[in-house]
């Protein structure tokens, strides 16, 4: 069993993220970052340049796994693909400074999702239409192929924005799925996501006896619900504006408020 630190959406706050990793990553075998490294209100091309240089360095840390968020994908794309995956916050000026820095970034070090000890970890989560009929290995292989296609300008629904966020698709993809309006537990899958900010850490669960939700604010997960054993689907959204991280050890999940 390994101890894994999961760091939610950063949005330019790389120094804060590094402080959190230094404080809470000691003793962890793996660190998963949930994406949205870029973009924030009123940021500048200089901010984007700083984040790009941080990302190039961060992905080289062998303990870290970086998943892609909707605010990251346009900056990874080539010129023809940017328009397809453009996200609010993106600008031509930021793209111009970021592209040369990320040009040689090894895309094998950027993940659509990470599967670890029975948890499926991604930026916004997978809808049942993307999970149905696939094994974990099949899903991850599909995601690798589609991310490679996406940066070359080929659209795929797995990265589609949705009506819940003001766009045309009925259901959002793994970088856009809205927690409150689109995410649903899928039996046999246990997911950890960011993307949908709130003041609290939220959970949706199903078991053979019931289904429901939990909400934790400025407190750890209650001991009686920390273990996913006995749940057919346990899912957590941990995007609180870097006010918390989570620790996963095997079947157990906990929140650390920072």
Q: What secondary-structure arrangement, pairings included, does this model have?
A:
Elements: E1 3-7, H1 14-24, E2 30-33, H2 45-58, E3 64-67, H3 73-76, H4 92-102, E4 110-111, E5 113-116, E6 119-122, H5 128-131, H6 136-151, E7 190-193, E8 201-207, E9 211-216, E10 231-237, E11 244-249, E12 252-257
Parallel strand pairs: 1-2, 2-3, 3-4, 6-7, 7-10
Antiparallel strand pairs: 1-11, 5-6, 8-9, 8-10, 11-12
Q: Can you put this structure into words, describing what you see?
A:
The chain has six helices and twelve strands. The chain has helices spanning 14-24, 45-58, 73-76, 92-102, 128-131, 136-151; strands at 3-7, 30-33, 64-67, 110-111, 113-116, 119-122, 190-193, 201-207, 211-216, 231-237, 244-249, 252-257. Helix content is 23%, strand content 23%. Helix 1 links the parallel strand 1 (3-7) and strand 2 (30-33). 42% of the residues are buried. The strands form two sheets. A six-stranded mixed beta sheet has the order 4-3-2-1-11-12. Helix 2 runs parallel beside helix 4. It has 258 residues and is of the alpha/beta class. It has one domain (3-257): Purple Acid Phosphatase, chain A, domain 2 (4-Layer Sandwich).
């Amino acid at each position: 069993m390994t101890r894994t630190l999961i760091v939610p959406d950063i949005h330019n706050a790389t120094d804060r993220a590094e402080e959190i990793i230094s404080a809470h990553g000691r003793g962890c075998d793996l660190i998963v970052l949930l994406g949205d490294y870029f973009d924030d209100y009123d940021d500048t091309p200089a901010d984007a340049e700083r984040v790009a240089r941080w990302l190039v360095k961060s992905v080289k840390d062998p303990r870290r796994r970086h998943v892609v968020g909707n605010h990251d994908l346009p900056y990874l794309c080539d010129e023809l693909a940017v328009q397809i995956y453009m996200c609010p916050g993106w600008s031509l000026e930021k793209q111009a400074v970021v592209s040369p820095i990320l040009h040689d970034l090894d895309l094998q070090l950027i993940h659509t999702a990470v599967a670890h000890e029975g948890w499926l970890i991604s930026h916004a989560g997978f809808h049942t239409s993307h999970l149905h009929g696939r094994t974990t290995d099949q899903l991850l292989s599909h995601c690798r192929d589609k991310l490679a296609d996406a940066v070359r300008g080929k659209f795929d629904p797995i990265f589609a924005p949705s009506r819940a966020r003001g766009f045309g698709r009925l259901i959002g993809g793994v970088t856009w799925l809205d927690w409150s309006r689109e995410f649903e537990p899928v039996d046999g899958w246990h997911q950890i996501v960011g993307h949908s900010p709130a003041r609290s850490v939220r959970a949706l669960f199903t078991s053979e006896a019931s289904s429901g939700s939990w909400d934790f604010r400025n407190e750890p997960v209650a001991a009686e619900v920390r273990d996913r054993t006995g749940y057919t689907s346990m899912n957590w959204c941990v995007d609180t504006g870097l006010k918390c991280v989570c620790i996963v050890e095997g079947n157990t999940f906990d929140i650390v408020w920072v």
